[in-house]
Amino acid sequence: MKKIISLLIILAISAFISTSSFSGHHEKAVGYFGWFGVGKVYQLGEGKLYWIGEFSGSFRSDDGGFFHKASVRCPAANRMDLVNGTTSVDGVCIIKDLDGDEAYLEFDLPNGTLGVANRGTYYYTGGTGKYEGLSGDGGYFYGHIVTNWPDGTAGGYSTWNKEP
For residue 124, what are the domain limits? Predict the structure, then answer.
């Protein structure tokens, strides 16, 4: 009987260990990231701007699951052509959940149109704690700059793995 109980305990511990690793994990966060961007704007000729800074805010998962109520910081760069109405942005994000564990991702939105929500993609590149080994396709997002303030800051949102 002791051998059966020991075996059951070992199986339970093994199941916990195997489910706590995200190696090759492809869970996709679905929700809303409201952000405020702080950075510096560089003029690159007539109507062309280059912004470098950080988008930061909070993520709300639609189902209370993956990354729910996590803080998000995204160092990024954005090229804007005000004459042609185009934008492209890329960067990385650090996501810190309520337990203090972090997930990392890289994102890219190469061919956007100013003034509308644009579709980009992201992929997981690692993490700490329960997100250690997190890697792979994170899905897509729609990013939208709602306001570019004169001081180089911006406000907006992005939806992750859902329509805006």
Answer: 2-160
